[in-house]
């Protein structure tokens, strides 16, 4: 990232931080936009493809991005569903880049080859690998994993940043070791996130007989591997936080002694423009239609939960609760 971009991101984040701690009007520096809910996979832990949600057209997306920019957003995550099932995805990326956003892109990469020349503006790719090939296919349904690896190699060859996300559905130590070796050889990073339960976007509830102590042991193991130098991009603060989570059957909880930065520091826009503090709150809180209303006017600072295991949200939330250590860790990666 250029120094100018780092500075721009730092200023936007500082404004968000101030708004959060001083309970001021929201100033989110980061937004995620689900360009579609459709997907070419059916992962066991995801309900997105089954939700029937209309999609904004390009003109509406341009309006939306302009609004996010005016609100102070500098980091824009494009995801889905699977964003590459939209034929106009190249134009959507171009729109985001023309407004100067730092663009991250979450994709299963199965359609990457079709659009690869339209994705050069993407600053950061996220894809998914759930452990050994057998485990990955069991979680994410039958598909050609070689296509995913070929796309990953191409992204790395082009010099774009890439992190593979592993959704932790059980304490699969063998799968974690497999991924760490693969990432070392392939030149990409890994992020681990606990499976989410009981949300509109989530595919299922916690299984009976979940092995709490083994899952905790697994997160301790990831922390140890990170400290030994494994290419795990999840922060130490994040990994430590998960080791202390009281009950892995619950994804989120309300603790009145703390507050969440969702809505003030970051937000989530679904494919129709309905906006929520974060993806997990979809179906729980009343959405705000960002195409019609100003977020600052309609925003409710009282999130339904204040602590959670929702991977990317937890990591971003920690930026607001432990700003010094989180920023130091982030700077080390720039
Ligand atoms: S997790 Fe991603 S790839 Fe899997 S079904 Fe959901 S949107 Fe599709
Ligand atoms: S604690 Fe905050 S980020 Fe986490 S699910 Fe609740 S509202 Fe979303």
Describe the structure.
The protein is α/β, with parallel strands linked by helices and 334 residues long. The protein has a single domain (3-331), classed as Alpha-Beta Barrel (TIM Barrel), CATH 3.20.20.70. The chain contains 12 helices and 11 strands. The strands form 2 sheets. The chain has a 9-stranded mixed β-sheet, with helices on both faces. It has a two-stranded antiparallel sheet with strand order 7-11. β3 (102-106), α4 (112-115) and β4 form a beta-alpha-beta unit. α2 packs parallel to α3 (89-98). Bound molecules: iron/sulfur cluster (2 copies). The site of one iron/sulfur cluster (SF4) has 15 residues, from β11 and α11.
Question: Could you give a short description of this structure?
Answer:
The chain is 40% helix and 14% strand. With 334 residues, the protein is an alpha/beta fold. It has one domain: TIM Barrel.
